[in-house]
Amino acid sequence: MAGLKLLPKRKERLGDQLYGQILEQIVSGALTEGDKLPSEKELCLMFEVSRPVVREAMMLLQADGLVVARQGSGTYVQRRPPQGLIALAGASDVAGILRCYELRVPLEGEAAALAAKRRSPEQLERIKTALDELTRALESPASAAAADFAFHRAVAEASGNDMFVSILETLHAAVENSMTLALNITAQGSAERSRRVLDEHGRIYEAIAIGDSDAANLAMRYHINRARQRITEQQSDV
Amino acid sequence: MAGLKLLPKRKERLGDQLYGQILEQIVSGALTEGDKLPSEKELCLMFEVSRPVVREAMMLLQADGLVVARQGSGTYVQRRPPQGLIALAGASDVAGILRCYELRVPLEGEAAALAAKRRSPEQLERIKTALDELTRALESPASAAAADFAFHRAVAEASGNDMFVSILETLHAAVENSMTLALNITAQGSAERSRRVLDEHGRIYEAIAIGDSDAANLAMRYHINRARQRITEQQSDV
Amino acid sequence: MAGLKLLPKRKERLGDQLYGQILEQIVSGALTEGDKLPSEKELCLMFEVSRPVVREAMMLLQADGLVVARQGSGTYVQRRPPQGLIALAGASDVAGILRCYELRVPLEGEAAALAAKRRSPEQLERIKTALDELTRALESPASAAAADFAFHRAVAEASGNDMFVSILETLHAAVENSMTLALNITAQGSAERSRRVLDEHGRIYEAIAIGDSDAANLAMRYHINRARQRITEQQSDV
Amino acid sequence: MAGLKLLPKRKERLGDQLYGQILEQIVSGALTEGDKLPSEKELCLMFEVSRPVVREAMMLLQADGLVVARQGSGTYVQRRPPQGLIALAGASDVAGILRCYELRVPLEGEAAALAAKRRSPEQLERIKTALDELTRALESPASAAAADFAFHRAVAEASGNDMFVSILETLHAAVENSMTLALNITAQGSAERSRRVLDEHGRIYEAIAIGDSDAANLAMRYHINRARQRITEQQSDV
C-alpha cells in the first residue's frame, strides 16, 4: 500500500470518511484482491485518527464483504466493487448507504410479514399496481427509484401498522438515494440483472397475495440484502 | 353482547377506537373468556363503521391474543387483560402501544445483533451502567421507564449504525409511554415479575458482552415480545 | 365440484391421501382458480373421513399456497400447479415432498449460517467444487439431483457440527426425491429458470465464502423456499 | 498456562477431545477468567494435533461463550462454568451436548411455529398434560428429563409434519442426555432457576395455545438457547 495518497478530509463521521478512503483505494485498484491492509496501528498513524475510528471503519468494510479478517494474520481485500460506484455516489456516502440497508432488512421484512397477514384486497391491489409501475420504470432508471419506493411503501401500508409507514417516510431521502444507486448499477449490468430485480419484487408480491407471512418476510429480507450486495459486486456477477 | 353500550367516539383511527371499545368490554368483564363476538356484519351495524374498520380491529385483537377466530365458526374472547390496564392507559391508546412493540421486535433485535458484533469496550460499559441503573430504578417505577429507555438506547448506540439510534429517538415518546405502562403493570405484580424483567435485560447484556449476535438478537426479541404480552396478561400469570 | 370422482384409497396417512386427491382435481382442472371447495362437513361425507383428517389436508393445501381460506366464507382454489406435476410424482407423494421442505428451511438455513462462521479453506473448496459440478449437471437433469444433494451436503459438513450432516443423510432419499421433482419441473421450464436455480446456489456459496452468516442463512432459506414454491407454480411464473 | 497437564487422549473427534481438555482447565481453575490461551501454534505442539483441529476446538469454545478472541491480540478465557459440570458429564461429552443444542434451536423453533398454526385441540391438550407432568417432575430431576422430552415431542407432533417427530426420535438419546445434564445443573441451583425453566415451557405452551406462530418460534428458540447457556453458567447467574 506504499504510495497511497490517503488524505483525511474533515467532515461527517470519521469512521465513514476512513471507510470511503479505503473503498476508493479498492475501487481504483490501488489495493487489489488478496492485498493485506496496513495494521490498525499503521492506519491510525497514516490517517491521524484514533483506534476506535479505525476499528469502526474496518468492521464496516468487513460487514460489507469488501475486506476479510483472518485470525492472527491481518485484514485482506476481498472484493473489488464496480468501477462506476465512486462516480455514482461519493466514496464516503457509500458507507451511509450500506448502513441504510442494515436497517431496512429487519424493518421491511417484518412489514412484509404483517402485510401477508393483514392486507385488505384494496391494499393488495395497490401493491400490484406499484409492481406494474416498477416493471415499466425499470426501462428508464431515472424514474425507477420513485416506482421502487412506491412499491415498498405500499407493502408497509398493508402491514396494518402505521409506524412502519412513518419510519419509511422518515427514511425517504436515504432510501431513494440508495435505490437510485442500486438501480443505476443494475442498469449498467445485463438485462438479466434487471429481470432478477423484478423477480425479487414479484416474489414479495406473491407471498403477500397468498398470505404466507414467513415467505413474505424471507422474500423481502432476501431482496434488500441482494440490493445491498449488488452495490459492491462486479457486474459480471450478474 | 346485548345491552352493551358501545359508543363510537370521533377521534383517532377508527380501527383503534373500535379495538379500544371491544377491549373495554373484555376488561370490564361484559364479555368473558369463551364468549362469541358478534359477526362482522353485526359489528358494522352496532358501531356504524365499515367492514374494513371491523376487520382491522378484529385482526389486531387477534394479533394481541385477546380474541381467537375459529374457522367457519366465529370469533371468541380468549384472554382477559388485568383490570388496571384501562385505568393506566386509555382503552384506545392500548392499540397504539401494542403496535409500537411490533416495530420494536425486529428493529431492536437487529440492533442488539449488531451490537454483539461491533460494540467497543466503552459502549459495552455504557450498556452495563444502564443495566445497573435499571436494577435500582425498578424499585420505584416512576423513574424506571427512563432507565429502561436508556438501556435500549445504549444497545442501539453500540450497533455501530446511527440510524438505529435515530429511529429510537423518533419513537422516544411512544416507547417510553409503553415502558411506563408495562412497568406499572409489572409493579402491580409479584416481586418475581420484576426479577424476570431484570433477568431479560441481563441476558441481552450478556449476549452482547460475549459477542454472540444470534443470542443477542433472540434475547432482545424475546424481551420485547414478553413486554408486549405482559400488558394483556393477568398478573397471576407472573 | 359435482361429478368429481374422489376415490378414497387405503394406504399411507389419510391426510396426505385426501391432500393428493384434491390436488389431482386442481391439477386436472376439475377445480379451477377461484372455485369454492366443499365445506368441511361435505368433505367428510364425500371421502368418508373424520373431521381432523379433512382439517389436516386443508391446512397443508393452504400452507402450500394451493387454496386460501377466507374468514367466514369458505376455502377457495388459489393456484393451479403445472400439469406435469402428477405425472412426475404420485399425487399423494407431493404432500410428503412439500413437508420435507418445511424441515429443510430452518435446518439447512442454520447449517449455512454456521458454515459461514466455521468452514475451513478445504471445506469451502469442496462447496465450490460441488457448485461447479451442479452447473454442469443442470444440463442433464438426470444427474443434477445427485450434484444438488452433494452441494447441500458440503455446506452441512462445513457447519462444524456433524449432526447437521447426519440428519441430511437420514433424509437422503426424501431430499433427493424432492430435488429430482423440482429439477424436472425446472428442466421443463425456461433456460431462465435453470439460471435462477444456479444463481440461488451461487449466492449461498458467496455468503459462506465471505463469512457472512446472516446472508448465508437468508440465501439458503430463500433457495429452499423457492424450490418448494416452484413445485406448485406454473412454468410461466419463471 | 505453564504446568498444565494436557494429556491428548485417543478417542472420538479430536476437536471435541481438545475442547474437553481446555474446558477441564477452565472448570478446574487452572485457567481463570481473563487468562490468555496459548497461540494456535503452541496448542498444536502441546497436544500434537494439526492446525485445523486446534481451530475447530477454539471456534467451538468461542461459540459456547467460554473463550473470546480479540482481533490481533489472542484468545482469552471468558467464563468459568460451574464446578459440577465435569462431574455430571465427561469433559469431552460436553462439546457434543452443546452441539446438539445448535441443531435443536432452528429445528424445534420451526416445529413450535407450525404447531401454533396447526395443532388440533387434542394435540394442544397433550402439550398441556406434558407441561403439568414436567411441573411435578421438576421436583425430582431423575424423572424430569423424560417429562421434558415428552413436552418437546408433543410440540413436534402438533406441527402436523411427522418429519419433525422422526428427527427428534432419532436424537432421543442425545437430547435426553443433554436434558439430564441441564436439569441436574438447574437442580443444583436456586428454586428460582427451576421456576424459570418452567416459565420458559409455559410461554411455549401459551403461544401455541393462542396460535401465535412467531411468538411460539421465539419462545422455543429462547428456551433451548437458555438451556444451552445454563450448562456453562455459574449458578449464581440464576
UniProtKB/TrEMBL annotation, chains A, B, C, D:
PANTHER family recorded for this chain?
TRANSCRIPTIONAL REGULATOR, GNTR FAMILY (PTHR43537), UXU OPERON TRANSCRIPTIONAL REGULATOR (PTHR43537:SF5)
**Domain of life of the native organism:** Bacteria
Give the HTH gntR-type domain ranges: 12-80
Gene Ontology MF annotations: DNA binding; DNA-binding transcription factor activity
Q: Give the matching SMART domains.
A: FCD, HTH_GNTR
One Pfam family assigned to this protein is: FCD
Does Transcription regulation show up as a keyword for this record? yes
Q: Which organism is it from?
A: Azospirillum doebereinerae
> Which residue positions does the secretion signal occupy?
none
Name the UniProt record assigns to this protein: FadR family transcriptional regulator
Gene3D superfamilies registered for this protein in UniProt: GntR ligand-binding domain-like, Winged helix-like DNA-binding domain superfamily/Winged helix DNA-binding domain
